[in-house]
């Protein structure tokens, strides 16, 4: 992370990495300059319009398995359109979060996928969920991290992402057999921070959220319990996302549908 990024985010590279390790997430305020944000937003709008137009009036279920390769409805009114780095026209290693990604995942970290999530006005809150499971009984360093970029100012009424602080160390279904993997991954109504500490002498992870200014980025561990909150405003909320994995890790819970809207 360069000096400008450190000044804007208020954290040094080592501090951001430490927060990611301890809390499972870190919010980097105004990390991205306006030119980058405008460029990402322009591509996101164009791609989303093309895909939504192609989808037309066809109904689409909730979750990646019920969607299409080009679009997923993560919850009612919350649309996820994947967009390749090449379409965004960015140099991966020039992105302001790349030093943090490589500090956490290694210098050979790989880009997994990227895109934009748009939450319509009136969109309800998601159920608590993780994005991928732990891969060992012991707590390992992250195998994947995600970056959510605010494409405009996101006040609390628009429903920014809520994170259960420190929950990435408690979502291990391999270590805690009371946890059901599918209920962690696939947005089950009964999933909450409280279930992670049933029978344990630990306090319930606190739900934490914050308004985001344009260009701010939320970086979080793929195993963290989190959810997008309800959009109670009159405008759609748009965040671009960029996901990375440790070299050699293969995940299969993010985009599962193989059908195309163009078939």
Question: Which features does this protein show?
Answer:
10 strands; alpha+beta; Jelly Rolls; 22% helix; 3-stranded antiparallel sheet; 263 residues; 7-stranded antiparallel sheet
The parts where pLDDT drops under 50 for at least 5 residues are 2-7
Shape-level CATH architecture: Sandwich
In angstroms, what separates the terminal alpha carbons?
43 Å
Helix content: 10-25%
Give the structure's gist in a few sentences:
This protein has 263 residues and is an alpha+beta fold. It has helices spanning 3-9, 13-23, 34-55, 85-88, 98-105, 181-185; strands spanning 25-28, 72-75, 78-82, 110-119, 144-150, 161-164, 207-208, 217-221, 226-228, 237-245.
Can you walk through the features of this model?
The protein has 263 residues and is an alpha+beta fold. It has a single domain, classed as Jelly Rolls (Sandwich), CATH 2.60.120.620. 22% of the residues lie in helices and 20% in strands. The strands form two sheets. Strands 1-8-5-10-4-3-2 form a seven-stranded antiparallel sheet, with helices on one face. α2 crosses α5. The radius of gyration is 18 Å and the shape is globular.
């Amino acid at each position: 992370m360069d000096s400008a990024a450190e000044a804007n985010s208020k954290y040094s590279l080592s501090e951001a990495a430490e927060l990611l390790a301890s809390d499972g997430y870190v919010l980097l305020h105004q990390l991205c300059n306006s030119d980058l944000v405008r460029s990402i937003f322009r591509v996101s709008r164009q791609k989303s319009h093309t895909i939504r137009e192609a989808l037309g009036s066809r109904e689409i279920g909730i979750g990646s398995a019920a969607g299409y390769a080009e679009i997923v409805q993560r919850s009612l009114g919350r649309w996820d359109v994947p967009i390749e780095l090449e379409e965004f026209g960015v140099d991966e290693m020039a992105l302001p979060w790349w030093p943090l990604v490589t500090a956490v995942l290694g210098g050979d970290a790989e880009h997994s996928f990227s895109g934009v999530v748009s939450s319509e006005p009136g969109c309800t809150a998601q159920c608590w969920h993780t994005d991928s499971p732990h891969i060992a009984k012991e707590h390992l360093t992250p195998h994947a991290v995600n970056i959510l970029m605010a494409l405009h100012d996101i006040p609390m009424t628009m429903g920014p992402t809520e994170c259960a602080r420190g929950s990435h160390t408690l979502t291990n279904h391999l270590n805690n057999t009371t946890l059901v993997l599918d209920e962690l991954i696939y947005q089950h109504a009964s999933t909450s921070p409280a279930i992670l500490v049933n029978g344990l002498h630990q306090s319930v992870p606190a739900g934490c959220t914050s308004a985001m200014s344009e260009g701010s980025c939320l970086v979080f561990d793929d195993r963290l319990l989190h959810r997008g909150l309800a959009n109670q405003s009159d405008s759609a909320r748009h965040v671009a996302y960029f996901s990375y994995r440790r070299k050699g890790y293969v995940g299969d819970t993010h985009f599962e549908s193989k059908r195309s809207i163009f078939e």
